[in-house]
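Recap from last week: sequence in, structure out.
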Amino acid sequence: MIKPAPNIPGPLGRRPRRWRAFWIRRIAPLSALLSEILPRLFDVLLAGGLLVILAPLLALRAVISITQTGRVLERTSAVGRFRQPIERLAFASSHIGKSWPLLVNILRGDLAFAGPRLLTPVEAERVPVEDAVRFSVRPGVISPHALRRRVGIAYEAEGASDREFVYGETLKGNAGLVARSAVGSLLGGKAPQATSPLIEFFRHSHRERHDAGGRGLDCGSCPRQ
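Predicted structure tokens:
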């Protein structure tokens, strides 16, 4: 076996650091586990804290619902993580706080605070194969695409936004989405805004490119004489 010369600079002159590969193999599963546990822990703590704080208002809201409709909650069929059927909870009467029972959905593990938009069974059947990765995470009360629509910067399709979220989900990113959604609700309401057109600095007509080619400039798309 030929040993690497110690005077050669760079990795060729060093022995492979087996301890580094050993720790990488040990840490990788732990990192994957933490990436699953930490966002879920954030959801449970935040939802539980909000339920405790809002308990008096939730009780009052339940009384209003049962007085007006004869029932406290309404349940809507939806599709959750791994395409499992879930029930979206909401107060029966249409007043402020109708969606507060979604906190119970989060505690039960049906939803997360941040994630792809919750779909009905009919909508879930229409999801294309390339966007099916959205079902590998819990649906969110706050959707990245919906948040972008609210502020008028939804330039990508919803499927592209969902894929970006799934592949790049972090605890910090989820907390940021929740914070931006809260600020957006206070400042701009929940109505989506029209997306501003992209500014194209180098858009020219074919005639302009042809004139440029006639002045000695390169016009790659123009037909050659």
